[in-house]
Amino acid sequence: MIKAKKSLGQNFLCDQNIINKILDITEIEKKNVLEIGPGTGNLTSEILKKKPKKLLVVEKDNDLVNLLQKKFCNKIKIINDDVLKLNENFLSKETLTVFGNLPYNISTEILIKWILNLSLKRTWFDCLILMFQKEVADRIISNFDTNKYGRLTIIANWRLKIKKICDVKASSFYPKPKVESSLLFFKPKEKFSNFRNPKNLEKITRVFFMHRRKMIKKPFNLLFNNNLELLSKMGISLNSRPQNLDFETYYKLTREYENLRG
To answer: How much is the pTM?
Structure first.
């Protein structure tokens, strides 16, 4: 039996009921599918039963790659690489349906990378079906003016429509993690704020949420040099805290930041 590697954040999904629930979310017959972190191939086997046109899997662990090659032979294409080092926009010429039981230690990094790298001309996926640590999922789907609302919420909701499917108990994985998980479904938005450089949204939110319990006077002045005209135009109070500003306010602030810098 393959032993899970803690250093890679490995927890293999082994609950057939959850696997069935994942595959009931969207139709994949004759579609191009990508699975991130297939592990020992439990979900992979069930994906193949749905007869996709093509199945790509990204797996970093060499031991698991060898296992998957023996188990599935030429039924899947294995990309033996770190998902954070791949340019996902070039994985396939055709749109992908993406499944992923993401390693807890890099799940937010993966999601933010994918969002900030999205092309304006072509979205490389039609949907994402991803497993997160429940605490992280709660942050992704939180509303503004709550204590879970933050950078991850704002960036995720910029380009994606998000729906929670269900919570998943720790006993659904091997080895059993110390936390519960949540399954989220993402679809690309057709309408969204356009930025010259999406990394400016990451910068704006990072500076504002650096001290999330403090008022926004310091981050606003740092980014906008005490621009009182902008403050009035935006209808923002410097006595607000970062979590008091809604999604659209952060998107407008990002556009203003770009306009001020030409």
So the answer is: 0.94
Domain range for 217 is 199-260
Boundary residue ending a domain (188, 221, 251):
188
Q: Is residue 76 located within the same domain as residue 205?
A: no
Per residue in 180-238, pLDDT (tens digit) is 999 999 999 999 999 999 999 999 999 999 999 999 999 999 999 989 899 999 999 99
Q: Choose one of 134, 167, 188: the last residue of a domain.
A: 188
CA distances from 39 to 3, 48, 103, 175 (A): 10, 15, 10, 12
Residue 11 tokens read as 């927890």
Is 193 domain-assigned?
no
C-alpha to C-alpha distance for 64 and 23, rounded to whole angstroms: 22
Identity of the residue numbered 107: S
Rg (CA), the chain: 20
Q: How far is CA 210 from CA 37, 44, 150, 151, in A?
A: 31, 40, 10, 10
Per-residue model confidence as pLDDT tens digits over 152-192: 999 999 999 999 999 999 999 987 888 999 999 999 999 99
User: How many other C-beta atoms lie within 10 A of the C-beta of residue 100?
Assistant: 21
